[in-house]
Structure formats: structure tokens, C-alpha cells
Amino acid sequence: MTRTRLRLAVFDLDGTLVDSRVSIHASCAAAFAAIGRPEPSYDQVRQIVGLSLREGLALLAPDLTQADVQGLTEHYKQAFNARLAEPPGSDPLYPGATALLDALKADGWKISMATGKSRRGVNHALSVYDWTPVFDSTHCADDGPGKPHPAMLLDALRASQARPAQSVMIGDTAHDILMAKAAGVASIAVTWGFHTHDELLAAQADIICHSFKELHQALARFAP
Questions:
Q1: Exposed end of the chain (fewer CB within 10 Å): N or C?
Q2: Looking at the domain assignment, is residue 1 inside a domain?
Q3: At what angle do helices 21-34 and 53-60 cross, to 10 degrees?
Q4: Strand 167-171 relative to strand 137-139: parallel, antiparallel, unpaired?
Q5: Using omega within 30 degrees of 0 as the cis cutoff, is the peptide bond preceding 62 cis?
């Protein structure tokens, strides 16, 4: 009997599968307004997406005390959850995301998630996008060190019993690419999210894709 080869695709969430650009910036603006600070620009906010929430907000306001950053974090969560409580109750998936995940699953890939979201955010995504049957494991900022530390990605490898050479990380930020490099895993960057082509190139992504068609083709060529 021929054993099916093991291939693991680890996906970032925000900016890779889910178009959360508007909601993340709006939630940051509301959080800063709640503490009487000017709202950060979209360009400032997009740089911290992918990091754990508290770490990212601290970078946006480096003069705040730890207690103030905690308060800012809570305001962000309240603003973000309030948006989710309104119709449609979720951010849109990028066109092509569902088709790609379904195709990978049908082709025998293991699929994991590595995201800077909280466990609550991960569970919400699994529910609203009907992803529980799709993802073999999920790993997030609540589990340990955030990106670009390799902990989440290494946990994904262990969960699927995959070696680094059998695995590929797909993300839209330099944080994703640097995490992959730290774990010894191949990386595919996508340009429709938060970081620019030049930023992803500077992070030395192995492959850069500009569409889901290109991403599917890149993954189809992946042979451990």
C-alpha cells in the first residue's frame, strides 16, 4: 500500500483568508478615542497586524504604561466585539479563500491556522465560516509567544506530526515570514492583506503571490 505523502499548509487569518482591514483599523481608532488619544493611521495599524494584540497596541503607543496598554487592549476588544455583534457578524472572506481550502482538503493536505487573534477570535472564525471540519489544528496568541516567534508554527507541526520540510506557511505580513524562517519552514506571502510586496520581499518570503490562483498553483507545486 502506498502511503499518502504528508503536506501541511499553515494559514494566517487576518489579511490572508479574512479581509479585516476595515474592522481592525476602526477598532483601533475607537480604542484610542476611548483613552483620549488621536487615532493611528491605517498605515500605522497595518504594521502591527499579526502580532499579539497587546504587543501591537503597545508599539502604537510606546509611552503608555503597562496598565494603560491593558486598558487600551480592553477598549479594542470591546470595539471589535461590538462590530461583530452587528450584521453581518463577521468580516468577509477574500474571494477564492473557501475554494482554495476546500481544494487543499480534497487533495489530502493537513491544514492549520496560526494567528495573532485570541482563542475567542479563533473560535468565532471556526463557527461563522464553518471551518471546524477544515482546520486540523489552530494556534493563536493565547497559546504562548506570538509572531514572529516560531512557537505557534512549531505547535502546528507537532499537531500534524509534520516535519518542517513537509510544511509551508502562508501569510500576508513580514511577521508570518519571519516566523516561518525561525521554524525552518517554507513561506508563501500574499499581497492582498496588510503588508506590501516590498515589505514581504524584504522579509525574504520564498514565494510571493498576488492572487488566490497564483497561491493555489504555488501550493500545487509544493512537494516535500
A1: N
A2: no
A3: 60
A4: unpaired
A5: no
> CB neighbours (10 Å) of residue 132?
10
Question: Is residue 125 domain-shared with residue 205, that is, in the same domain?
Answer: yes
Q: Report the distance separating Cα 163 and Cα 93, nearest Å.
A: 29
**φ/ψ of residue 221, rounded to 5:** -85, -10
Q: Which residues are catalytic?
A: 12, 14
Q: Are residues 14 and 118 in the same domain?
A: yes
Does residue 2 lie within any of the structural domains?
A: no
Q: How far apart are CA 166 and CA 146, in angstroms?
A: 22
| Tens digit of each residue's pLDDT (9 = 90 or more) over 142-177 | 999 999 999 999 999 999 999 999 999 999 999 999
Domain with residue 25: its CATH number is: 1.10.150
52 belongs to a structural domain: yes
| pTM of the predicted model as reported, rounded to 2 decimal places | 0.94
Co-location of 53 and 139 in the same domain: no
Judge whether 18 and 192 are in contact, CB under 8 Å: no
The residue among 104, 107, 108 whose CA lies nearest residue 17 is 104
